[in-house]
Specification:
Elements lengths: L7 E5 L4 H12 L3 E5 L5 H8 L3 E3 L17 E5 L8 H8 L3 E4 H9 L3 E6 L4 H14 L4 E9 L4 E5 L4 E6 L13 E4 L7 H4 L2 H12 L7 E5 L7 E5 L5 E9 L2 E7 L4 E7 L4 H17 L3 H10 L8 E5 L4 E5 L4 H14 L5 E5 L4 H6 L1 H8 L4 E4 L15 H7 L4 E4 L2 H10 L4 E5 L8 H11 L1
Parallel strand pairs: 1-2, 1-4, 2-3, 4-5, 6-9, 6-10, 7-9, 10-11, 11-12, 12-13, 17-21, 18-19, 18-21, 19-20
Antiparallel strand pairs: 7-8, 13-14, 14-15, 16-17
Helix pairs in contact: 5-8, 5-9, 10-12, 12-13, 14-15
């Protein structure tokens, strides 16, 4: 497929974080862009402000007339869209070119110098840091992010088309459409077992992704993973290693040992050692690409984070409210560790919304163990996303396994009332569903209470 021959692009699921970044890109390069999504969001509103036509009803009549010509219209869809979707069925039956988001990302990046970040955890933050580092070093890049960068208020960084930075998504084996020059694997913990069935199949997919690295390319691997590559780690013997960590006024200060030298007094303000690891992975890739360490140190100091990744909404001496995307037991463990490191001795309340029935079923004991670490716990109903209910898999089933004494199943309607009863000094919202839409209400309620 020659994208230069495509003049119109219609996205089925345009409000998705990955889909919207590609929609922004096509709009920027002069294509006509439109699309469908289920509900209006801040992302769809931002697209509409650019002039992108977005509809929220699934019907053929809602497709703009200009996009009804199949000859020069490309249809991009996300696997989250059900096969019974009316518009998608129409496009498939009317000789349109219909492709998954992942294939388009592969086509966009195939003629660029591509840096790709994969991993069951950490890839969004690492990709965001890497895009920021390269942009600070004035690299001619386009970065497709899986979250909204706080530095750019966007999931797309545009500074040229010679280099691409992408989040390599293991879901549905999407990352196998990429052919990176530099690739990174941050984690390989079991996940998406609704797709893979067994953890070994997920590991096989990562190995297949590594085989996609172009000749002469390089792989960066978190130290300890069963993969061969340039290693990175914290206080260890990795090729790139963070050493002598100190915390001053909520900011990490540390040294980075590289294969050639030691970089002193690096500052990074995103809490949690998992985020230090993400920063180091991005540093290693950018440094290997050719960025000078001094410029990378400047960029790390100015990095602000990704929305919904340990995002502060209240930060006073009496009360802290943090929103985080954590939706896997290992991610919850990492967030918990970061909170305890930054706020030792404080009473911590977590509000958790499980994401997917299948993930809750597959990791229920690990979820229970990770959630038991908090002083107080409120659990919302499971966010189903693309799934139908599974008999016996409920939030109450999960909650019954949690050892935390101060725990309760709550509805969204009762959530604020329950919050008012708590004396917690640190409040967390955790989950990948629509819990993010509750953040402003929670922030307002906590601000009034305090």
């Amino acid at each position: 497929m020659n994208l230069s021959n495509i003049h119109k692009v219609y996205f089925v699921g345009i409000g998705g974080i990955g889909m919207s970044a590609i929609a922004r890109y096509f709009h920027f390069v002069g294509k006509q862009v439109a699309g469908y999504d289920k509900t209006p969001t801040e992302i769809t509103k931002a697209l509409q402000n650019l002039g992108v036509n977005v509809c929220f009803e699934d019907g053929i009549a809602q497709i703009p007339e200009a996009f009804l010509d199949a000859k020069d219209t490309l249809i991009v869809y996300t696997p989250a869209i059900p096969e019974v979707h009316t518009q998608l069925q129409y496009f498939n039956s009317e000789s349109y070119t219909v492709v998954k988001r992942s294939k388009i990302l592969g086509l966009i990046t195939e003629n660029t110098y591509c840096l790709a970040v994969a991993g069951t955890h950490g890839k969004t933050t690492t990709t965001s840091i890497l895009g920021h580092l390269l942009n600070h070093c004035k690299a001619p890049l386009t970065a497709f992010l899986g979250g909204i960068s706080e530095n750019y208020d966007s999931n797309l960084i545009l500074n040229g088309d010679e280099i691409s930075v992408v989040e390599a998504d293991e879901f549905d084996r999407s990352f196998l459409t990429l052919s990176p020059n530099l690739a990174c694997v941050t984690a390989m913990d079991p996940d998406h077992l609704d797709i893979y069935g067994e953890a070994s199949a997920l590991e096989d997919a990562f190995k297949a992704f590594i085989q996609k690295i172009r000749p002469g390319g390089q792989l960066f691997v978190k130290n300890g993973l069963p993969l061969e590559g340039i290693t990175y780690g914290i206080d260890d013997d990795a090729d790139f290693s963070i050493q002598h960590i100190k915390i001053k006024n909520g900011v990490y200060i540390f040294n980075i040992k590289t294969p050639e030298t030691i970089v002193y007094n690096v500052e990074f303000s995103l809490p949690g050692q998992h985020n230090l690891s993400n920063a180091l992975a991005a540093f290693a890739m950018a440094n290997t690409y050719g960025c000078h360490p001094d410029h990378l140190v400047e960029a790390l100091k100015s990095y602000k984070g990704v929305k919904r990744r340990f995002s502060y909404h209240i930060k006073t001496k009496d009360l802290v409210f943090i929103d985080d995307y954590a939706h896997h037991p290992e991610e919850i463990n990492a967030t918990h560790a970061a909170v305890r490191e930054m706020y030792p001795g404080q009473n911590v309340l977590a509000i958790f919304q499980p994401h997917l029935y299948s993930r809750t079923r597959d990791f229920v004991d690990a979820f229970a163990k990770s959630l038991s670490q908090f002083d107080e716990l409120l659990v919302l109903d499971i966010y189903p996303a693309r799934e139908l209910p599974i008999e016996g898999v409920t939030s109450q089933w999960l909650l019954d396994k949690v050892q935390c004494v101060n725990k309760k199943l709550v509805s969204k309607e009762a959530l604020l009332n329950e919050l008012q009863k708590s004396k917690a000094q640190v409040v967390l919202t955790l989950g990948a569903g629509d819990i993010g839409a509750e953040v402003e209400r929670i922030k307002k309620a906590l601000s009034v209470a305090s």
